[in-house]
């Protein structure tokens, strides 16, 4: 499960940076209404909110307090699968542009 937390955190950081750059350059539009609202309030706030998820995950790893319950384990693995699919889709769109 530690690997899943690392993968989620890393994917989130990469996604945050790429999304931020894409939004700044006007190449993409944020599809998540909540994140779009946050970005329209302030772009740095958007980046901070996106990166806070990775910070929380790395905090669990740093203090060695990764929850060991099965629900957390399966949720983490499912999130990695979904996030990997979404990330691959974004990468495909970027290459296509």
Automatic annotation (TrEMBL):
<feature type="transmembrane region" description="Helical">
    <location>
        <begin position="75"/>
        <end position="95"/>
    </location>
</feature>
<keyword id="KW-0472">Membrane</keyword>
<dbReference type="InterPro" id="IPR043717">
    <property type="entry name" value="DUF5658"/>
</dbReference>
<feature type="domain" description="DUF5658">
    <location>
        <begin position="7"/>
        <end position="95"/>
    </location>
</feature>
<dbReference type="Pfam" id="PF18902">
    <property type="entry name" value="DUF5658"/>
</dbReference>
<keyword id="KW-1133">Transmembrane helix</keyword>
<keyword id="KW-0812">Transmembrane</keyword>
<feature type="transmembrane region" description="Helical">
    <location>
        <begin position="44"/>
        <end position="63"/>
    </location>
</feature>
<protein>
    <recommendedName>
        <fullName>DUF5658 domain-containing protein</fullName>
    </recommendedName>
</protein>
């Amino acid at each position: 499960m530690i690997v899943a937390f690392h993968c989620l955190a890393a994917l989130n950081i990469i996604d945050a940076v790429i999304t931020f750059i894409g939004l700044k350059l006007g190449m993409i539009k944020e599809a998540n209404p909540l994140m779009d609202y946050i970005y329209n309030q302030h772009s740095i706030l958007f980046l901070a909110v996106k990166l806070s998820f990775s910070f929380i995950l790395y905090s669990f790893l740093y203090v060695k307090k990764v929850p060991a319950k099965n629900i957390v384990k399966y949720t983490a693995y499912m999130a990695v699968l979904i996030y990997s699919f979404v990330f691959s889709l974004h990468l495909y769109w970027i290459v296509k542009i």
